[in-house]
Amino acid sequence: MMLRKLARPLLVTALMLGASTLSVVAVPSSLLSDTRSQFNLEQAVPRAFGDWTVDSNIIPLPPSPDQQSVLNQIYDQILSRTYVNGKGERIMLSITYGSRQNQQMRAHRQEVCYSAQGFKISGLQRLQLSVGGRPISSTRMVATQGSRVEPVTYWFTMGDQVVLTYFEREWAQFEYALAGYIPDGYLVRISSISGDPTTAFTRHSAFAETLVASIDPELRNRLTGKL
Amino acid sequence: MLGEVSLSKPLNFQSTMPVLLLALGLSVMFGPVFIKLAHTVWNTDEQGHGPIILAVAVWLLWQRRTLFQQAAAQGRPAGFMGWAWLLSGLFIYFVGRLQNIVTFEMGAMIPLVVGALAVTFGWGVVRVAAFPIFFLLFAVPLPGPVVDAMTAPLKQAVSWFSEQILWAAGYPIARTGVILNVGPYQLLVADACAGLNSMFTLEALGLLYMNIVGHTSRLRNVLLAILLIPMSFTANVIRVMVLVLVTYHFGDEAGQGVIHGAAGMLLFVVALFLMFVLDAVLGFFFKNRRGQ
Fold it and tell me: Are the beta carbons of A120 and B98 separated by less than 8 Å?
């Protein structure tokens, strides 16, 4: 009689304990980044390539202290440079690396980042670019603050693939979890100050093309996805 | 769940054991989630109210312990629907843990508690526990994409109202997006200033207040719940204006220091005061039935 009464609560508790055991077992704890070569972005990304050299006259604006603390939580490495070419055109490159892309605090959508800093976002579009012969699902937007008009091209990677939407990122994370790994990821952001977004975007693509041609093939895989 | 009833009836193994078993299951599942939240979301100013909500929900459940005994004695354990709630809770929990989505990890608690109570004690007990379970919703961290989508327009609106009112009051204020220029100072209306989370916290407090006061008119409760949203918005505009004024008159240091925290408190005081006033006003139109 007593056991009959307890059958249901016992079953329910068993299910609960089962679910929590299952989730402890299934959640990966090894880092994908520990299994392969690592890059120091400051060294691995050349300071001069093609017609482009780092413009040392321009020191990128440092983020405010509270922004910096958020950035440090999300990313392990942040590379931020301004390049200039022979014609005096300037392009800003930012590559960030995070070794744990399974967190709540992973790489941010840049339209959210920019608008949080007071920029107005327009012309937001997602499109397929081709960089170094590889398809890149990227995002373009124009961020405006006062007289500063900044066309931006960016994309994310997780492990060995380029990911665009929220769902794609969740799915990539899920696939790596099945393999037992927490994926790492890069954010590549190319932007310039220009009132002419169409020309600027074309330049961003050309810049990206030259950049990836000049880096280590292994890092190229990380930044543009493995074929 | 023993409480008063156990005074009349001797404490019996049969009636306490199911409750203890469920409590064990829930604590094994949600212990790790609470620990994680304590280090992350609950540790922030914006969503730090989570543990308080949980404590209140537990207190509300405890308050209803006699009613539980009655409902459990009369009710029959639920069938298919109860199991469906339970299993969907387990599934959401698993996805949340695996993908590290705190909204799911915490949110799973609601279907899980509903299902667990239904299949062990019956729907009567779920009905008794309905408000405390619903209240748990406010302890669930908001999903990141939702926060991102709502924060920006809220910030714009808060900045716009603050600018308009202060300009009308004769202050030298100008706005570009969410950046306010007042005199020589420039203030950025940050994400936390959007007031999204304080809106939810105030809504939770308001619902709790209504539940405790126990107004009999449903319309009065619904009106109050809806009006809480513009009220917390108003309180937030007041907070931003106070910060602008402090910065303008006393300098940047003052605006960013202790007063910044104090203004957060002010927001709650103002909003709660507005709520009581509003409830009193509504009281003129909706009389509580006698005998309540």
Answer: no
